[in-house]
Structures are given as C-alpha cells and as structure tokens.
Amino acid sequence: MNKKKTGLAFAVAALAVVTVGGGLATADPAGPPQYRQLSGVGSDTTQDVMNGLADVVTVNGQKVIGSYDATGSASITTKNPATDPNCTLARPNGSGAGRAALLNSLQAGNGCLDFSRSSSLNLGAASPGLTYVPFAVDAVSYAITPGSSIPRKLTLADLKAIYHCDPNYVGTGPNYDVTVYLPQAGSGTRSFWQSQMGITEADVVAGIYPCVKDKKGTAPVQEHDGRVLDDKSIVPFSIAQYQAQSSQTIADLRGRAILGTIDGLSPTVLNSGFGVKRDVYNVIPTSKVGTSPWSDVFVGPNSGICKQAAVINTYGFATNPNCGDTTKQTP
Questions:
Q1: How many angstroms separate the CA atoms of 55 and 50, rounded?
Q2: Neighbours of 6 (CB within 10 A)
Q3: Pairing of strands 130-144, 318-319
Q4: Mean per-residue pLDDT of the chain
Q5: Per-domain boundaries in the chain
Q6: 136: which residues sit within 8 A by CB, 6+ positions away?
Q7: Which terminus of the chain, N or C, has less C-beta within 10 A?
Q8: Is 237 helix (H, G, I), strand (E, B) or coil?
Q9: Please, what is the end-to-end C-alpha distance for the chain in angstroms?
Q10: Could you read off the pLDDT of 258-305 as tens digits, one per residue?
Q11: Total Cβ atoms within 10 A of residue 217
Q12: What does the pLDDT average to over 324-328?
C-alpha cells in the first residue's frame, strides 16, 4: 500500500441544524406520552433518526413511536408499569440484539416491544415471522485520523486486503502496524461491513484475521464513535452518522475521525450514490403489517415515516425509493 499522504477529497454538503418538534430529538422517549404504542430498540446507526421521527409521526394527533437508544442506562422500561409491570428489560445494543429482544417479547406475548431498528438485513428464520421495512439509505466508509499512515483514498480491494490482514497493508504480527477495528458484536454495521470486506463472523471469532479487533483494551468498540481511533487504526463509520454528528444534529462522537474515499467516490450527506451503501430498516412482526398503528407508521410509501423525507435527510440519510416496502420477510 502506498502510504504517502494525500489530500482529503470528499465533498461535505452542509446539513442544516434543524429542530424537530421544537428541539433536537431526545434519547429515550420522555413524553408526552412517555410510554408509546410502538416501542422499539436496536440499531445504533438509526437510533437518532428514529428519535427524530418519533417526535413528528403521529396517529390521531398522538406520538406513537417509542425508540430507545442502543446505549445508556443498563435497563429500559418500555410500557407503563402501572398496566404492564413486566416491561423493564436490559437495553439491547445493536441490530442483532434488537431483533433478539423483539423476538423474545413476541414469543412471550408480553407486548413490551413492537418493532426493532436494523441497519442490516437478516432474513434468517424467525418465529414468529418478521418483516424488514426499509425507510432510508445509508452508506459506510472507513474512518481514520488526520495523522494516519493509512491513505485517505483507497479502493474497495485495498480495504478488503486490510481486513484480511494482508501484511503488505497492516504489517506482521503480533504487533501490527495497523489496528483494524470492527464495531461490537451484534452491530448491524459490523455484519454489513463484514459482508463488504468478504470476511465472516465465524472467521473473526475464530481469530482467522488476527489484526482485526472489536475491543480497545477491554472496552467494546461502539459503532460510529471515532474516539476509538489513533494514528494507526481504522474503523467503519456510517456516513449518515458522521454528517449528523458534524452538523451537531446529534451528539458529536467523531473525535479526530475523518472519512476516507472509496474507489474515487466521496462520502457525502445524501449518500445514495456512494458505492458501499445499504438500506436501513424497521423490523415489525409480519402478522402486524396490515394492523394499525404498525401499518400507519411503517407500511407503504404514504406511511407516517415515509412522508418525513426532510427529517430523514436532516439526520444524514438519503430517502429510500422503496420506503414502506413489506416484501422482505423471514421464513
């Protein structure tokens, strides 16, 4: 790899810092009402845009989306304890954990969770069945620091070589020249990036790629938190999250992180043209596709969420031409 530093050449269109419902969207639902009809957990990538949507999407004039952040307090309470006393649960962190928590709630029939957020598509068998409803488009690039020896422009082939621990790119072990980070286990960004890099979760867990780490010391690497980086490390980063953090629309956790260019394509705010892109989803029970309020909020191009293009764009995501589609269902 040519480690000569090159100028950072990506276009950053300005995000307007706008308020949603009179102020920036808060983390967990605070009311009114505090407890919502549709409680959801999961993806770190989409938590902020869903918080913003929760402030503006209503059914019969009332807010109905209760979106709980991936990190924060150890536990969350998703329904009114006076009527649903058993809806305090450990806070799920990431798409995989959100899906698992939703399935647990559906299997228990306790009504504690009604949807989950996911930044990756997982159509593996689920009981009861789940429907992945797309609502926006994100893209993912790599993040480094300004002083990094890693070039600011790479090809996808270069990135794959880095994540395969090619010694021409990362040096030789046990002390590699580059620390190659993945987000925490269960992260949708982790699974998406692995698919783009041509590596598998099983091989990562088995240590087939010894330069790849998902912890810094003993602390798990939280997705879209650039403070994990030093001048000898690399990590995937959602472009939507980066731009929303940059504009102060959400909390700025970038640290010294800057985004790299892949295959000559610059990471931009509305990133539907970027090469490494993905749909992001809300996951709902398939049995509820035609049932209000799920159908009002999530389903179809005229659903509450799909009509909020301005909010979706404010959080750095591109609108999705398939918003509200319900064809992606688990067996």
A1: 9
A2: 10
A3: antiparallel
A4: 91
A5: 38-136+284-319, 138-262
A6: 46, 49, 240, 279, 280, 312, 317, 318, 319, 320, 323
A7: C
A8: strand
A9: 44
A10: 999 999 998 876 656 788 999 999 999 999 999 999 999 999 999 999
A11: 5
A12: 98
pLDDT of residue 270: 62
pLDDT tens for 11-63 read 333 333 333 433 455 679 987 999 999 999 999 999 999 999 999 999 999 99
Name the H helices within 164-300: 167-170, 188-197, 201-205, 239-246, 294-297
Please spell the DSSP secondary structure of 35-75, one letter per residue.
S-SEEEEE-STTHHHHHHHHTT-EETTEE-EEE--SSSSSE
Q: What is the CATH number of domain 138-262?
A: 3.40.190.10
Cis ω on the peptide bond leading into residue 151 (within 30° of 0)? no
Pairing verdict, β 179-181 and 65-67: unpaired
Distance CA 32, CA 193 (A): 38
Give the C-alpha separation, 15 to 314, whole Å: 6
Name the token pair of 88: 């305090």
Q: What is the length of the chain?
A: 331
Mean pLDDT of 136-141: 96
